[in-house]
Amino acid sequence: MTAIPLGVPRRLVEFTLDGQEARVPEGSTILDACRAAGKDIPTLCEGDTLRPKNACRVCVVEVEGSRTLVPACSRKAEPGMEVSTGTERARHSRKIVLELLASSVDLSTTPRVAGWLKEYEAKPDRFGPDAARLNEEPKVDNELYVRDYDKCILCYKCVDACGDQWQNTFAISVAGRGFDARIAVEHDAPLTDSACVYCGNCIEVCPTGALSFKSEFDMRAAGTWDESAQTETTTVCAYCGVGCNLTLHVQDNEIVKVTSPHDNPVTHGNLCIKGRFGYQHVQNRD
């Protein structure tokens, strides 16, 4: 049986959210309060298993007395704070961020971004066909996962998941500076020549599909990837005695990818190579 620590009770913080009284446990972010109140704030670089990076700035809100807009994903709620999420200034900022990202990065596999572009009336096409893009072919150098940097928004979530926040492998980092900055492994070598241990925890946190399962990449290329036709079944990994939870994503009676629940006290969404990719042996019919 797994023991789940209950933690120390936290006092409630009272503040104003869009003119309404709000109460959240001390230490909660403005984004936590927005979600508790049912408010839809766009997020890309925010991850529920990672520390905030403040890279994308698409979740900004207005706080009374603050000179600049603040990222809701990292700013803690404070007593007496007055927060407005739908002001013209905040909405305009989100619109510009979405336009700049969508004009320079392929967001075709980013969940919910099409709805946000429509909601904020963002028009990335106004930057014209000459907007800076990486225009690089996807890197397919192994049978487990694919790197498509044309879809990378430099949110650093993969770097953090591979580094000191979870895996401690440090196979992924940021190379270059300014406009030349990009996610890379050592010397931009093939993944097979790097320190990568193929845990796939970078795939788990990637918000845009820049890192994806090879199975998903192949099915998307063939036009057969259909999330609406997939079922999810959570089970316990049988490879060792740790007891990691695996969520099997099944389409047409085939496991197409494996994730893990982020609220699981054992894995927190992370797996090893056997848990993440061992499913290929389950359906090996040779």
Short summary:
The protein is α+β, with helices and mostly antiparallel strands and 286 residues long. It contains eight helices and twelve strands. 21% of the residues lie in helices and 18% in strands.
Polypeptide structure, described:
The structure is a single chain. With 286 residues, the chain is α+β, with helices and mostly antiparallel strands. Helix content is 21%, strand content 18%. The protein has helices at residues 30-36, 88-104, 113-119, 157-162, 201-205, 214-222, 273-277, 279-282, and strands spanning 12-17, 20-25, 60-63, 70-71, 82-84, 145-147, 173-175, 182-184, 211-213, 231-236, 245-251, 254-259. It has a five-stranded mixed sheet with strand order 2-1-5-3-4, sandwiched between helices. The protein is globular. The two termini are 37 Å apart.
Keywords:
single chain; 286 residues; alpha+beta; five-stranded mixed beta sheet; three-stranded antiparallel beta sheet; globular
Characterize the largest beta sheet: strand count, sense, and whether it forms a barrel.
5 strands, mixed
Mean pLDDT: 92
How much of the residues is beta strand, in percent?
15-25%
**Low confidence ranges:** none
**What sort of overall outline do the alpha carbons produce when their principal axes are compared?**
globular
Strand order of the largest sheet: 2-1-5-3-4
Which structural class best describes the helix and strand composition?
A: alpha+beta
Supply the number of helical segments.
Answer: 8
Specify Rg, calculated over alpha carbons.
Answer: 20 Å
DSSP helix fraction: 10-25%
Query: What's the N-to-C terminus distance?
Result: 37 Å
Give the H and E element order: EEHEEEHHEHEEHEHEEEHH
DSSP strand tally: 12
